[in-house]
Write a structure and sequence with these properties.
The protein is mainly alpha-helical and 125 residues long. The chain is built from 3 helices and 2 strands. It comes from Rhodococcus jostii.
Length: 125
């Protein structure tokens, strides 16, 4: 069984390709991926709140930097997750290859920065 199972293709409004109703399993898998990115964004948001409320660092600037990096990364992941979900869903409907994503490198870079900031905080106190 292929990805596309509909007998009634619909012309796409934004391109000359044809939209077809995909197998529901692919749509559900795409939604699960979206929800996993949203959970990661929510965890970073909670980490930012915890850093703001619970860290007792001599430097308030370092504490605020850690907090804002968590909030910024949560914002990037939440908005990027939606954009990736929408692009993947569109590709699935058009039977095209799935698009690439910058979310994994963004998360790796952001967590690397947070690790350096946390190491600096540990050395500072």
């Amino acid at each position: 069984m292929g990805i596309l199972t509909s007998d009634n293709p619909r012309p796409s409004a934004d391109s000359g390709s044809v939209d077809e109703e995909p197998d529901y399993r692919y749509t559900l898998a795409n939604e699960r991926t979206y929800l996993a990115w949203i959970r990661t964004a929510m965890a970073l948001l909670a980490a930012g709140v915890a850093a703001h409320q619970l860290l007792a660092l001599p430097s308030g600037a370092l504490q605020m930097t850690i907090t804002m990096v968590c909030f910024g990364l949560a914002t990037v992941l939440a908005s990027g997750a939606y954009l990736r979900w929408r692009a993947a869903q569109s590709a699935i409907r058009r039977n095209l290859p799935l698009p690439g994503s910058v979310l994994v490198p963004a998360l790796a870079l952001g967590l690397g920065i947070l690790t350096l900031l946390a190491a600096g905080a540990a050395l500072w106190s």
